[in-house]
Amino acid sequence: MKNRLMLALDLPDRDKAEAMAKELAGDIGWFKIGLRLFVAAGPELVKSILQTHRVFLDLKFHDIPNTVAEAIGSAGQLGVQMTNIHAAGGHEMMRAAADAAKSFPRMQLIAVTVLTSDPMPPEQARVEAVRRAEAAREAGLHGVVCSVHEVEAIKAACGHDFLTVTPGIRWGGQSANDQQRIADPGYAISQGADYLVVGRPILQAPDRKAAAREAVELMQAAARGGA
Ligand code: C5P
Predict the structure, then answer these.
(1) Alpha helices, DSSP H only, in 119-192?
(2) CA dihedral 119, 195, 35, 175 (to 10 degrees)
(3) Is the CB of 11 under 6 A from ligand 1?
(4) What is the CATH number of domain 2-226?
(5) Mean pLDDT over each residue of the chain, to the nearest integer
(6) Per-domain residue ranges of the chain
(7) Choosing from 60, 102, 155, 209, which is the catalytic residue?
(8) How far is CA 140 from the centre of its chain?
């Protein structure tokens, strides 16, 4: 299950990110490098993390088709196993990105549907997320980022093999922070989420290794319950 858990390395610099990755190396399968860290530490940090772990480069590209396709090519050359774009960028942009990703068969390209921080009412978010997921699949992407509450509907519409990567994970009374559509790790697994993205619940825990292990245990218990 730890190979389905992605830690969001939302940290300010390379030293802190490498220290965190080292501390949690045995407890987590993937590290997610997002905007803050990439802007600060860049491709060298990505290469350093790639020596030991899989990397989801979460830069949520949203630009004209050619620019996005070139950025996807750069991500592929870096060697990351997953990267993403905004489905809101439209069909031409998603198609150009998917075409660029074909040169890197080990890299999964996914689309952000509706941000889990978006205050849209849940039913509207689900309808919109499914609509954008269908558009992403149509354009040739491998999956989407979505909330746990949209996984079942997206799998029903796009097929079981269409990946769902779910942030907004919270458990044991943790603060939702700025997330709106949250769910706990066990529920995420029971809904069929392929990968769980966790940031602050682990990064800010008094015992980070214990928090990571707790998340994995909740995932395992749900998987056993569903077996
Ligand atoms: O700290 P927290 O667990 O809320 O972190 C969630 C991570 O997932 C952040 O890095 C955030 O950028 C990312 N993310 C998200 N919602 C999306 C896509 C990515 O929260 N739709």
Answers:
(1) 122-139, 151-158, 185-191
(2) 50
(3) no
(4) 3.20.20.70
(5) 95
(6) 2-226
(7) 60
(8) 18
